[in-house]
């Protein structure tokens, strides 16, 4: 569904809290990771919240750029520096956390990065879309609607008096 559609999946901060509790319970009932690897930016809050909910202090970040705007992506996702050293992940059971498995390309890239060094890698997301090429191991909700996350559904904040968008200064 396009971002201009009037039907949207709305995630509030309150609903996010409930989603994390449910997602964390699903994970701990099945898997005990040594480390949570959060995919920045969308997975930062998910990985951190899962870390707290599951009592896991070993939370790391990998930065992947794919979306360049609303509904706009690069041809392929790209890892941005710094990336965790593969040796730091060696032999670990890793939970890869992200906000949504949309196309699945970002999760696929991170899974491939981890594949040769980790003992096991599983994936957890708040949302999964049917078109995703990766089927995450743990999902809170499936949807094909555009998702409004509470941390990204407002314009970028700029200094007071600074023009935004395409306005000239």
From TrEMBL:
InterPro entries membership: PRTase-like, PRTase_dom
Residue ranges of domain Phosphoribosyltransferase in the record: 10-151
Keyword Protease belongs to the record: no
Protein name in the entry: Putative purine phosphoribosyltransferase
Pfam families, alphabetized: Pribosyltran
CDD domains: PRTases_typeI (cd06223)
Key words, A-Z: Glycosyltransferase, Transferase
Keyword Electron transport: no
Domain of life: Bacteria
Coiled-coil stretches noted in the UniProt entry, renumbered to this chain: none
MF (Gene Ontology): glycosyltransferase activity
